[in-house]
Amino acid sequence: ASIDAWLRRRARRGPVPDRIAAIEAFQLFPGAETSRALDFAQISRSFRICIAALRARVETGEMPNLADVLRLTERPEGGRSLSLFKIVEACVRANPASALTLLQACSASPARIMVLKALGATGASMAFGDIATAASDPDPEVRAAAITALRALAVPAAMPHFLAATRDPDWQVRLKAVEGIGQLGGPADRASVEPLLNDSIWWIRFRA
């Protein structure tokens, strides 16, 4: 049997570390058979194997479908996975328009958070309006992610959203807003953050 056929078998069965090693080696054998093997690995019950398969696709230039990637945020370990975020970031960088469409259609907070942060990290200024709208999302984690993304874009138009967010009931949103004002603002904005000098959260008082 050829080594690529052996790798495909190894990727399907055995201990998780061995399967991951086999999946990573698929990068040496690009083609239709490898693509099918990665399709199989992507639906594994093991989150680590799914991540390995998606990373292999990115490394070979075969960008995975972002909607499929975001489904992993529904798993317990998915929402805060840095490895998953890096894959989402690569997908967004490759096709920001598709990411924006998904952001507009998606209601699940973990997926929205990932896409918002990736849009900001990749400098997708064309998404400014939708990111700003997300700064008013009912979920405070989504609002914080939107403010983080606006800060990453570093455009003057973000300032009104930072100022509004300083009055948010959630302290994490207020903290992100103060950091954004500190990045963009000047002396004229000091009056807006002065009330935060008495904030109940010490770190916000310090940043203000």
Tally of contiguous helical segments: 14
- Overall residue-averaged pLDDT value: 89
Strand content range: under 5%
Query: What structural class do the secondary elements suggest?
Result: mainly alpha
Rg (C-alpha, Å): 21 Å
Task: Give a short account of the largest sheet.
Answer: none
Helix content: 55-70%
Straight-line N-to-C gap:
65 Å
Question: What shape does the CA trace take?
Answer: elongated
Kindly state the number of beta strands. Answer: 0
Return the string of H and E elements.
HHHHHHHHHHHHHH
Unreliable residue runs: none
Quickly list its features.
208 residues; mainly alpha; 14 helices; 0% strand; elongated
Question: What does this protein structure show overall?
Answer:
It is a single chain. The chain has 208 residues and is an all-alpha fold. 66% of the residues lie in helices and 0% in strands. The protein is built from 14 helices and no strands. It has helices at 3-12, 16-25, 32-42, 47-59, 66-70, 82-94, 96-105, 109-121, 128-134, 140-153, 159-165, 171-184, 190-193, 202-207. Helix 1 (3-12) runs parallel beside helix 3, helix 4 packs parallel to helix 6 (82-94) and helix 9 packs antiparallel against helix 10. The longest helix is centred in the C-terminal third of the chain and has 14 residues, at 140-153. The protein is elongated. The termini are far apart.
